[in-house]
């Protein structure tokens, strides 16, 4: 199945569903920050996510309990590949260098990255 890009609102709802594992619209709203969106807004976004193949549901009478069909890791892989291909010519070096230049990586993180690289070299 082809994964599609999410809008900001859809991604915010998916983040909550990934956190909850499953839930009703009310459960999703409870986790969202203030100001809380309207019930109908969240319900509509969840139905759009279901149509896009990200969410499934179990019916309990007229109520639906929703659950993620696409895992956070699957979407993370899609988004990372899109970022790498679209902005860094599929080069980890270019991406890393960008974050270093923008000062998005501190010394502690750089040290942790170096340790990961050393572990990779050992294999």
TrEMBL record:
It comes from Mucilaginibacter xinganensis. Belongs to the BlaI transcriptional regulatory family. One of its GO terms (molecular function) is DNA binding. Keywords: DNA-binding, Transcription, Transcription regulation. Gene3D superfamilies: Penicillinase repressor domain, Winged helix-like DNA-binding domain superfamily/Winged helix DNA-binding domain. The keyword DNA-binding applies. Coiled coil: none annotated. Pfam families: Penicillinase_R. InterPro entries: BlaI_family, WH-like_DNA-bd_sf, WH_DNA-bd_sf. SUPFAM superfamilies: Winged helix' DNA-binding domain. GO terms for biological process: negative regulation of DNA-templated transcription. This is Transcriptional regulator.
